Amino acid sequence: MKKYAVIGNPIGHSLSPAMHNAAFKAMKVDAKYEALEVERLDRAYDHLRKTYAGINVTIPHKVEIMGYIDEKEMAADLIGAVNCVDFNEAAKGYNTDMYGAVDALMSEVPKLKNKKVLVLGAGGAARAIVYGCVLEGCRVSLHNRTAEKAKELSKEVLDKIAKKVAVVDEVDLSKIDVIINATSMGMRPNNESPLDVQIPSSAVVMDIVYNPLETKLLKQAKAAGARTIDGVEMFVLQGAESQRIWGYDPPVDVMRKAVLAKL
Questions:
Q1: Start-end ranges of CATH 3.40.50.720 in the chain?
Q2: How many angstroms separate the CA atoms of 74 and 70, rounded?
Q3: What Rg do the C-alpha atoms of the chain give, in angstroms?
Q4: How many Å apart are CA 207 and CA 209, to the nearest integer?
Q5: 216 is known as an active-site residue
Q6: pLDDT tens for residues 27-71?
Q7: Which of 50, 62, 149, 257 is catalytic?
Q8: 3-class state of residue 140 by DSSP
Q9: What is the b/e burial string over 46-76, where b = at least 16 CB atoms within 10 angstroms of the residue's CB?
Q10: CATH numeric code, 99-229
Q11: Could you give the angle at the alpha carbon of 107 between the alpha carbons of 6 and 137, nearest 5°?
Q12: What sign for the dihedral angle of Cα 187, 239, 159, 111?
């Protein structure tokens, strides 16, 4: 039996085992996926390398794991964080958040090139989303409560891939096609919205928060007549990308149903 795991601290809240085990069962694959609370990566890494065929990595180990792996692919290198490792021959690190975000967006906006995208936040998830959107040819602007952090990300994108990301102090949605909340605002129990302005009905609004499934921001968007993408979509699609990295053809609908059942 092949074994897979998600590592983090804390990890008890993770929906990844339900999602991946449902996929293995549907595919009739002899594999098991578990959640492991790892406090110190330096003490756990050798055991992980010997025991598991692959792992997902979450907070607080996504940056530190880069010091242990043998190689990393483009997205992980750009974003500066790894959330999926394949222990096949070499230990290779990936960042599936970028692909999950883009795939989720394309479920509502199949052609992203030249779309005007506003990303709210400048943390780890925002980094993955910004790089993903910029590489798809979107015109990205960034708004963060701490403007300095947004400016640092904007400069980094320019330095690394010579693409411009505008930093905006005031949110103006009049010419925005896509709005993405990449902050934790909206997460239970603080169901707040990162926006206090009217959302245009022509916009597509995506929230990376998946608990609750319908955040205050998504309720605002629906009330305005805008199309919405909930956080489950990005979570499931980045999980499906992990499955592909490990050599499987994932049943995405089964994975989505497993996550929704847990929520």
A1: 99-229
A2: 14
A3: 18
A4: 5
A5: no
A6: 999 999 999 999 999 999 999 999 999 999 999 999 999 999 999
A7: 62
A8: strand
A9: eebeeebbbbbbbeebbeebbebbeebeebb
A10: 3.40.50.720
A11: 95
A12: negative
Residue 222: enclosing H or E segment and its boundaries?
Answer: helix 216-223
Q: Residue 247: CB partners within 8 Å, gap ≥ 6?
A: none
CATH dotted code for 2-94+234-262: 3.40.50.10860
Residue 93 makes CB contacts below 8 A (sequence gap 6+) with 65, 66, 69, 71, 72, 73, 76, 82, 84, 85
Q: pTM value?
A: 0.95
> CB-based contacts of 90: which residues, under 8 Å, 6+ apart?
70, 71
Residue 104: pLDDT over 80: yes
Q: What are the pLDDT digits (tens) for 171-192? A: 999 999 999 999 999 888 777 9
Q: Angle at which helices 16-27 and 231-245 pack, to 10 degrees?
A: 50
Indicate where the chain has its CATH 3.40.50.10860 domain(s): 2-94+234-262
What element of type H or E holds 232?
A: helix 231-245
* Three-state DSSP class for residue 152: helix
The first and second tokens of residue 243, run together, are 């499955």
DSSP state of 64: G
Coil, strand or helix at 82 = coil
